[in-house]
């Protein structure tokens, strides 16, 4: 078994009941995709992956900070944050922000804690243009 395949096998073997979907089955499509995902990361290199995450997240945070109707909770700078951006939009509940973004085919989530925030996760598969589209959609939420 190759290095990537053995790594994936170890991850799958470590799955516990907590990793099973709420409806009671494993999300096999995610497991099947892991080998190719690990190969892709190996091909492009850890440094490029990290640089991409940080660049897209900084682009997003910089612009969110400029919006008067947005409160950004995630610190700026790559030494204090990486892949998740938490924020509020004045006058809107976090779930409403997520719902409004989904109307634009933008996937966001809310934090699962006592105090919930809207959350974005710009990642390797996103483009700067997609981040710009997300920011336009959030700008349009000014005034609720």
How would you sum up this structure in a few lines?
This protein has 144 residues and is of the alpha+beta class. Helices cover 49% and strands 9% of the residues.
Provide a descriptive summary of the structure in words:
The chain is an alpha+beta fold. The chain folds into two domains: 42 residues, no CATH class; 93 residues, Aspartate Aminotransferase, domain 1. 49% of the residues lie in helices and 9% in strands. It is built from five helices and four strands, in the order αααββαββα. The protein has a four-stranded antiparallel sheet with strand order 1-2-4-3. A hairpin with a 7-residue loop joins β3 and β4. α1 runs antiparallel to α2 and α3 runs parallel beside α5. The N and C termini lie far apart (54 Å).
Topology of helices and strands:
Blueprint: H1 3-13, H2 28-44, H3 46-66, E1 70-72, E2 85-89, H4 94-102, E3 109-110, E4 118-120, H5 128-139
Helix pairs in contact: 1-2, 3-5
Q: What's the gyration radius in Å?
A: 18 Å
Number of helices: 5
What would the CATH topology of the largest domain be? Aspartate Aminotransferase, domain 1
Element order, helices and strands?
Answer: HHHEEHEEH
In this structure, how is the largest beta sheet organized? 4 strands, antiparallel
Number-wise, the strands total 4
Mean pLDDT: 85
Helical residues, percent: 40-55%
**What CATH architecture of the largest domain do you see?**
Alpha-Beta Complex
Structural class: alpha+beta
The CATH top-level class label of the largest domain: Alpha Beta
